[in-house]
Amino acid sequence: MSKTTSLICALMTTFIWGTAFIAQDTGMDNIGPLTFNASRFFVGFLTVLPIALILERKKINYEINTNKKLFLKYLFLMGISLFLGTYLQQAALQYTNIANAAFFTVFYVPLVPILLFFIYSIKVHWSLWPSIGLCIIGVYLLSDFSNSEIMIGDALVILCSLFWALHIIFAGKFMEKFNIPIFYAALQAALVFGLSLIFAFILEEVVITKILTEYSSILYAGVLSGGIAFTLQMFAQKNIEEAPAAIIYSLEGVFATIAGWIILSQVLNINNIIGCVLILIAVIFSQIAPTSKKSQVNN
């Protein structure tokens, strides 16, 4: 797989995440965040597993047996990170608005290089930091955060960004060692579904009829975001390092804004347009600039 293909996969992932944000917000009119997550990742699992069995069936056992302990380690780390990241994001939408959520979620962009240094002793090249700064400024303008109030849910979104950053890092490290991205995405979706369902029964009221009323949002967020997008993410991070990948994923806010403009007839002001341009510049520069300097890597 070439870097160009990985870049296309990253952009497709980001596009799906951005447009699915509307479904995530509207899909909780009758059910809680854990119930919504359980439903969408179950749909995601059912979407991806058949594809994995068709395309990767012959190499699944070989890939896992090359280092079963490391495989299970990354499955646990990525599954827990994705479960906590998606749950906190969904829960936050109940208490804060989309503008605040968009701004604070993008904190994973600077968190990725910071965590890379502390976990793997990897220093990103200095030239990436201007892109990170442009990305944060762009999302600030894009979200109209300056016109929003600080809300309790913002703390949940900040915490959510930490787990998104960890998930991006572990996805990159997994793809350095294994080559079954589709099957792995299916297992990851199954794990998030299971954890979400367990806690939904403990903390929420799980009613099938209420779940069915949100079927359109669940199907969109499940098939495209919970299934296809997280599979494409694995392909994307085959040839794109974690810090530049995080900058590309920040385009989620751009696609969410465009989707809101087209679907919800939301008006774009000059700050929104400038924000989109700054994020695009950050993404382009992050792909031109050198990426990282590794002093030591521990798996």
Molecular structure report:
This protein is mainly alpha-helical and 299 residues long. It has one domain (3-294). The protein is 77% helix and 2% strand. The protein has 14 helices and 2 strands; from the N terminus they run ααααααβααααααααβ. The protein has helices spanning 3-26, 33-55, 60-66, 68-92, 98-105, 108-120, 128-143, 153-177, 181-203, 208-213, 215-236, 242-249, 252-263, 270-288, and strands at 122-124, 292-294. A two-stranded antiparallel ribbon has the order 1-2. Helix 4 (68-92) packs antiparallel against helix 8. Residues 293-298 have low confidence and may be disordered.
Give a topology summary.
Blueprint: H1 3-26, H2 33-55, H3 60-66, H4 68-92, H5 98-105, H6 108-120, E1 122-124, H7 128-143, H8 153-177, H9 181-203, H10 208-213, H11 215-236, H12 242-249, H13 252-263, H14 270-288, E2 292-294
Antiparallel strand pairs: 1-2
The general outline is globular
Helix content: over 70%
Any idea how many domains?
A: 1
Kindly report the spatial arrangement of strands forming the biggest sheet: 1-2
**Structure annotation, total helices:** 14
The biggest beta sheet is recorded as: 2 strands, antiparallel
Radius of gyration, in angstroms, nearest whole number: 18 Å
- What are the secondary-structure elements, in order, as H or E? HHHHHHEHHHHHHHHE
